[in-house]
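Hey L., structure's done. Input below.
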Amino acid sequence: MSEQTFASGTFRPDPGRASLARILGVQALTETKLALRNGEQVLLTLLIPIVLLIGLDLVGFIPVPAPRIDTIAPRILALAIMSSAFTSQAISLGFDRRYGVLRRLAATAVPRWSIVGGRMLAALAVVIIQLVVLSVIALLLGWSPAASGIPAAVLLVLLGTAAFGALGVLLGGAVRAEIVLAVANLVWFVLLLAGGIAVGARDGFAAIVNFLPSGALAEGLHTALASGGWPGWQPIAVLAVWALAAGGLATRTTRFV
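Output:
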């Protein structure tokens, strides 16, 4: 009777680090599930933009060209991206540090860059859900987005999510949770009212607002979806610079405690 042989390592564990893609994918999936389970974050990221979308369309206290929904919808999409990628991201990360979640991660082989990248991918997943829901509601209200501007809008959404997500991780990963909560909400209101989202940048402030991620995203989406035109390279460059700068800094400054 011949003796059967097996390949080396068949009957013993073969420990080793997972691939970088798997590390990032698992981290992103976990962060997405946690974000969708958090009722407060869902309220901020979805319900408030829905109320503003319907309210600003039906109540004409802010003068915009008719049909109102064609002007309002792209800006509310920009607000939703900011709410999810920046505000919710910063707050959740700040409290994860406070409750020791990141300290436990520090005891594993999870690299710091995967925390940043995983949270940004989770933000993108939540953003996609938001944009689908808001777009359906806007279409029911009579929104007619320009089909020719959709490719540019997709690029702006990706860059906007990256920019705001990196800023959220930068804030939440370096500041105490209580301060993060106050600062994140304050920045949200300031950018909503004066950062080019609720209304377009005025002549005196356009030079400043258009270099903010909020102004670049809102104006870019409005140009792409309302008129179907290419928004130009400025909003794309602005969002890319914010994403790279904030992401690089967040990777170096994010603390586990």
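Residues 20-253 form one domain. The chain has one domain: 20-253.

-- N.
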